Amino acid sequence: MSPVPLTVTGAEKLRAELHEMKTVQRPAVIAAIAEARAHGDLSENAEYEAAKEKQGFIEGRIAELENKLSNAQIINPALLNADGACVFGATIDLKDLDSDTIVTYQIVGDDEADIKEGKISISSPIARALIGKYAGDIAVVEAPAGIREYEILDVKYI
Prior knowledge:
Layout: E1 4-7, H1 8-38, H2 46-70, E2 72-75, E3 91-96, E4 102-108, E5 119-121, H3 125-130, E6 138-143, E7 146-156
Parallel strand pairs: 1-2, 4-5
Antiparallel strand pairs: 3-4, 3-7, 6-7
Helix pairs in contact: 1-2
C-alpha cells in the first residue's frame, strides 16, 4: 500500500480511535454476542445477527486503522521548511476573488479532512490547485459548482 500522509494531530486521532475500538467497542460487542447466544436458537435471533454484523464492522475498522497507521507518513507542519510554498500540512489564508471573503484552510490527509474545522483533504480540488503555489499567486479551482479563483494571502507552517 502507498504511504498515507497524516499530520501529527491526525495520527493521534487515528491512534485514539484504534484504542477505543480495541479496548471498548470490541469487548462490548463480544459481550453482546455472548448474551444473544444465551437466549437460545441462533437461527431466529435478531440480536445475535445484529451483534455479529457490528462485530464485522468493528473488526474491519480495526484492520483499516492498523493498516493506515502502519503505512502512515507523519508530517509535522511546524517542522516544515518549504520556503513559503503551499504543501501538505500548510495552513493557507485565501481570498475568494468572487465574494471577497477570506478563508483559512490547512491541507491534511483524507482521514483528517473536516471543512468545519478548516481542514481540507490533499486530494480535494482546492488543495490540488494550491499545492506548489506561493503567497500572492492566484489558484484556479475547478469545483463542481464551477471555476473559482482564490488569491493566496499567506502560507504558514503551524
